[in-house]
Amino acid sequence: MTQIDWTALRAAAVDAMTKAYAPYSNYPVGAAALTDDGRIVSGCNVENASYGVGLCAECALVGNLHMTGGGKLVAFVCVNGAEATIMPCGRCRQLLYEASAPEMVLETVSGIRTIDEVLPDAFGPRDLEAVRA
Ligand code: THU
Q: Does residue 1 surpass a pLDDT of 80?
């Protein structure tokens, strides 16, 4: 298994957090992940005057993943403005699931967890393929 440099990953998440555009919540978030070919991809939250269309940091991270060569995520961390680890929201767990390598790990508020632990019995691409003719 790939060796995970959690310190570097966390530093990338903190750096991403400093670029957040969060004038409405004043809650900047930065997310960073290691890809299966060793890149670090990251993202920050981007809010909007139309509050409901704001983007979580994970949205930018997944965009960054595809824009920089694709692949799958093997490790993930997400921090707030106090540089504390936070959990990805429910929608973002689904986003991460789609982009995850098997056994992807997340640094969470309760330690290292796999994607399957933070999104049990997930709905995913295989469920669509199962009914495709
Ligand atoms: N936020 C994220 O960027 N990721 C999460 O997983 C949790 C929430 C953002 C959305 C919003 O801009 C701010 O945090 C407050 O909810």
A: no
